[in-house]
From TrEMBL:
<feature type="signal peptide">
    <location>
        <begin position="1"/>
        <end position="25"/>
    </location>
</feature>
<protein>
    <recommendedName>
        <fullName>Lumazine-binding domain protein</fullName>
    </recommendedName>
</protein>
<keyword id="KW-0732">Signal</keyword>
Length: 130
């Protein structure tokens, strides 16, 4: 029983810490990663839909944004052998202002990496790229 007591406190401590759930910064970070994963998979429209637009945008403008993402990915293929992976590095969030700064790491086909800052904004409980 004496040996069990310290482990019991450790278990209680771990459970208490784990019950808080993910932080708003982590939620924003994982949302940014999901948007960029969709871009990697060729779902340019879903990536564009992950951008915060306070008002609806004309279909022609949305089509231009999608075409820009296709050109961006083509450029990355030419210059770096393509964008192969996106990793979530870290994030900070200001919950009072509903904004976050997310750091992602781009891993290219030529093995180079680049750290990218993705500003995020929370609107009605959903994190969007700004």
């Amino acid at each position: 029983m004496v040996r069990l007591f310290p482990w019991l406190w450790l278990l209680v401590f771990v459970c208490a810490c784990g019950s808080q759930g993910p932080s708003p910064a982590d939620i924003a970070g994982h949302a940014a990663k999901v948007y960029y994963d969709r871009l990697l998979q060729g779902h340019y429209d879903q990536f564009v839909d992950g951008r915060y637009q306070p008002d609806s945008i004309p279909a022609s403008y949305r089509d231009q944004l999608i075409a820009n993402m296709q050109m961006f990915m083509g450029q990355q293929r030419q210059e770096h052998g393509g964008l192969r992976e996106v990793r979530y590095v870290s994030a900070t969030a200001d919950t009072a202002r509903h904004v976050a700064q997310v750091y992602l790491l781009f891993v290219y086909g030529d093995k180079t990496t680049e750290q990218v800052l993705v500003p995020m904004v929370e609107h009605k409980g959903v994190w969007y790229m700004r």
